[in-house]
Specification:
The protein is α+β, with helices and mostly antiparallel strands. It has two domains: about 80 residues, Glutaredoxin, CATH 3.40.30.10; about 110 residues, Glutathione S-transferase Yfyf (Class Pi), Chain A, domain 2 (Up-down Bundle). Helix content is about 50%, strand content about 10%. A four-stranded mixed β-sheet has the order 2-1-3-4, covered by helices on one side. It is globular and about 50 Å long.
Length: about 210
């Protein structure tokens, strides 16, 4: 049985959607980040970065959200969470997953934790504003990529869509332009949020509506 370590609404949400879609047994284990459990020795033995999520498969921990998603897709090919190996659609799925984790997720780190980006806390607000502007630019790129498409890659929802859904949710409280206000991104989020497996993941994490 898999064990998924995480906290409500954090980066474990995308793997949680994947596990519910696959339909295999798993245990969701709460890591209380407010109580600093992610920095305690028991958790650091699983994930030395001290971040969530971590997936334990048998005796093997796997960390980093994108790596967990790819592992689950590869372990359960019948779930169809990635396009066929060797296809151009598969290459595009890699492209978008890496873009979402290397660019969008990194910009969110600056948005939510601007004090980590500067030596002088006086500049934190400026970092946060710049990060939101950068996120708007990145979401514009994805908005264009979704033109005429229901899903970011392939003809069915997969791990890339779960990652995108999670990141759109994280921007729901943007002051100027939440990602959901872009037509294609908003429609994609609505489609994803209507999937039974996604509904179960959100409800199990105790997330209140509106989800995005």
């Amino acid at each position: 049985m898999y064990k998924l370590y995480g906290n409500s609404g954090m980066a474990n949400l995308a793997p949680h959607m994947a596990l519910e879609t696959i339909g295999v047994p798993y245990e969701m284990i709460l890591v209380d980040t407010q109580a600093k459990q992610h920095q305690m020795p028991a958790y650091l033995r699983l994930n030395p970065t001290g971040r969530v999520p971590t997936l334990v498969d048998g005796d093997q921990p796997v960390f980093e959200t994108a790596a967990i998603l790819l592992h689950l897709a590869d372990r359960h090919p019948a779930a169809g969470l990635m396009p066929p190996l060797g296809s151009l659609e598969r290459a595009l799925a890699y492209q978008w997953l890496i873009h979402l984790t290397n660019s969008v997720q990194v910009a969110y780190l600056a948005y939510y934790y601007p004090e980590r980006q500067v030596a002088d806390p006086a500049f934190a607000d400026s970092v946060k504003q710049a990060a939101e502007s950068r996120l708007n630019e990145l979401f514009d790129v994805i908005e264009t990529a979704l033109e005429g498409r229901e899903w970011l890659t392939g003809d069915r929802p997969g791990i890339v869509d779960f990652m995108l859904m999670m990141l759109v949710r994280w921007g729901r409280n943007f002051a100027a332009r939440p990602p959901r206000t872009l037509p294609n991104l908003g429609a994609h989020a609505a489609r994803t949020a209507s999937l039974p497996a996604v509904i179960r993941a959100f409800e199990q994490e105790g997330l209140a509506r509106p989800w995005y």
